[in-house]
Design brief:
alpha+beta, Glycosyltransferase, 2 domains, 6-stranded antiparallel β-sheet, two-stranded antiparallel sheet, 20 strands, about 10% strand, binds alpha-D-glucopyranose
């Protein structure tokens, strides 16, 4: 089902969707295509008469422009033309612009009114990074030490405003960096730990604004032949640009990057998944579920889900993606079905299943999501899990088995089991991990930290797997943590592998950056996984180690070398998700109960679903017992 199907035909499109569609169409082509410049901007913008004039902020919803082909569907065209007639100027004072659009057209949408402080009032309220005005939900009384105070000050300093409202945090803010590249943008994935730090402190406004503004940027129509993103894609990042108008007037616009400007032109598959995960977290932590119930937000969730669930040429329930489609956004040999994307996909589907309002029109998508969840966890548990015994089994595999009853279904050649793996895998059956990727004749045995941590957090792995992954991290502490938590992947690609797989990338040399570098931002996800598995002491050990160095080292993006001893060669300093990840870890450890709203337990209902496996006797055997049996392994 595509977005057009779930919207119904054009005459049925409710007016509250029309305005939204209007601002979402092809925003990314705005600045780059000069042919379009004579037309008004296609993205949300606000005109300011004077900078900082609080009450004079104006958002103009503007006319859309023609695309570079005429391939837009008639439904989209209709949406656009109706949007035109509805377009109107509205003030963005009080940041209710987005609310106004949807609440004006009603349909049981309960607007969330978040109290805003005027610019300078807010400044007065924030003393040493400690906002006294908010209810800190049980965090009162926790004495912040110097380190945390500095972290809070830096995090607040990284906040980006749009029409005087906070909408996100920049990726890095090093005052000495004169070439910030795109690190001065708000990245969707990078904002997640910032969002959690703010939410856990009782400050939800920035998160709500972020969720609604990025929703406006979501890609709405697909024009592959114009290199524009697929319908439903969320941008990797966005920047607030100030454009001069006549005289002393200017307007602010949100300029998204869907990967068209990114190094390597990589599509951010993970952005939409993170957006959904954050939306759920917002509801769970604030208790405000009205945001996720809004029609525009529901449509956004469904568009992301539809993009991920669309039929392609694939035979597996895993999501087929290109290299660099996630946190690792450069060529690192992770194209295909990388674990990180699968774990985030699973988490996003579980979140969507909880959040999509059940009604006649959503029944099908909810069913599709449930089926995919069952199939996905079955597939990953069956085929991605390795421990010593499984590796021994692969080591003795027969190959070239053409039949339904092949044991070695993916035709993995035992030679792939390289010596490092045979040496590295722990002896104990209670340790193991999910491999990085699975393709025909290829298992990527590297340990990818984010994917393994999110498998624990989302219960993509069985309870036994989840404990075993933490056992492995504990046993391999020197390799995976070393001097700075945590390695992005292990081991690094070296020599000819580095040449061929990374394309001789000088940033991804062995044990640097994405190629075995150590990323402190992974700390918060490690903390969450440890708390879930009742092993907080492991997380405490990692946080204690990190806090000895982060401040002195000026909060680096990543560390280099086999044991993470050196600040990364090209590492940015004052990297926001390093700072926010640290703060989130601290908050979670101080209040472990709140962590339960951010992870998922095993869903027994999903294990009741029918799972189909290839068997000796026939093409497929579908059984309810298949999925259920895995909980015991
Ligand atoms: C790098 C990282 C990516 C991150 C971005 C901004 O490109 O690989 O994961 O989102 O920097 O910090």
């Amino acid at each position: 089902m595509n977005a057009i199907t779930f919207l119904g035909n054009s005459t049925m499109i409710p007016s509250h969707c029309i305005l939204r569609a209007f601002s979402r169409i092809s925003p990314s082509k705005y600045i780059r295509d000069t042919a379009f410049r004579s037309y008004p901007s296609r993205f949300s913008s606000c005109n300011n008469q004077y900078r900082n004039a609080d009450s004079d902020r104006i958002i103009k919803l503007r006319n859309v422009v023609p695309f570079c082909t005429d391939r837009q569907s008639s439904v989209t065209a209709q949406v656009v033309s109706e949007a035109r007639s509805l377009s109107a100027s509205t003030t963005c004072a009080n940041d209710t612009t987005l609310d106004q659009i949807y609440t004006k057209n009603g349909l049981n949408v309960k607007p969330l009114v978040v109290e805003r402080l005027k610019g300078h009032e807010k400044d007065e309220e924030v003393v040493n990074g400690d906002d006294k005005s908010v209810n800190r939900d049980g965090f009162e009384g926790v004495k912040s030490n110097d380190l945390e105070e500095e972290a809070w000050r830096l995090l607040r300093d990284s906040v980006v405003t749009y029409c005087d409202s906070p909408v996100g945090t920049v990726a890095a803010k090093d005052p000495t960096d004169t070439m910030p590249s795109n690190y001065d943008q708000v990245f969707i994935r990078d904002f997640v730990p910032s969002a959690l730090a703010f939410l856990l402190k009782g400050e939800s406004e920035i998160v709500r604004n972020f969720l609604l503004h990025t929703l406006q940027l979501q890609s709405w129509e697909k024009t592959v032949d114009c290199y524009s993103p697929g319908q439903g894609l969320m941008p990797a990042s966005f920047k607030v640009r100030t454009l001069p108008l006549e005289e002393d007037k200017f307007e602010e616009v949100l300029d998204p990057d869907f990967g068209e400007a990114a190094i390597g032109r990589v599509a951010p598959v993970d952005s939409g998944l993170w957006w959904i995960i954050l939306l759920r977290a917002y509801g769970k932590i604030t208790g405000d579920y009205s945001l996720q119930e809004r029609i525009d937000v529901q449509t956004g969730i469904k568009m992301i889900a539809n993009l991920c669930l669309a039929d392609g040429f694939d035979m597996f329930p895993t999501l087929l993606v290109t290299d660099g489609s996630c946190m690792i956004d450069r060529r690192m040999g992770i194209h295909g079905h990388p674990l990180e994307i699968q774990a985030l996909f699973y988490s996003a589907l579980r979140s969507s299943r909880e959040m999509i309002t059940v009604n006649d029109s959503s029944k099908n998508i909810i069913k599709t999501i449930s089926n995919r969840l069952s199939a996905l966890s079955f597939h990953i548990r069956e085929n991605y899990w390795v421990d010593k015994n499984k590796i021994n089994e692969i080591y003795r595999y027969k190959t070239e088995e053409y039949s339904m009853d092949a044991t070695n279904k993916f035709n993995i050649y035992p030679e792939q089991v390289s010596p490092w793996l045979m040496d590295w895998v722990p002896e104990s059956p209670d340790s193991g991990f999910l491999i990085g990727n699975l393709q025909p004749a290829h298992m990527d045995f590297r340990f990818f930290t984010l994917g393994n941590l999110w498998s624990i957090i989302s219960s993509l792995g069985t309870p036994k797997h989840n404990q075993a992954i933490l056992n492995l991290i504990e046993e391999k502490w020197d390799d995976l943590v070393g001097h700075m938590p945590l390695k992005i992947c292990y081991p690094a690609l070296e020599s000819s592998e580095w040449h061929i797989i990374t394309g001789s990338d000088p940033k991804n040399t062995p044990w640097s950056y994405h190629n075995g570098g150590s990323w402190p931002t992974l700390l918060w996800q490690f903390t969450l996984a440890c708390i879930k598995m009742d092993r907080p002491e492991l997380a405490e050990k990692a946080v204690t180690m990190a806090e000895k160095r982060l401040q002195a080292d000026r909060w680096p993006e990543y560390y280099d070398t086999r044991d993470g001893k050196f600040i990364g060669k090209q590492s940015r300093l004052y990297q926001t998700w390093t700072i926010a990840g640290f703060l989130t870890s601290k908050q979670l450890l101080q209040n472990p109960e709140i962590a339960s709203s951010l992870f998922w337990e095993e869903d027994l209902e999903l294990l009741e679903s029918c799972v189909c496996v290839l068997t000796k006797s026939g093409r497929k055997k579908c059984s309810r017992a298949a999925a259920k049996s895995q909980i015991l392994i």
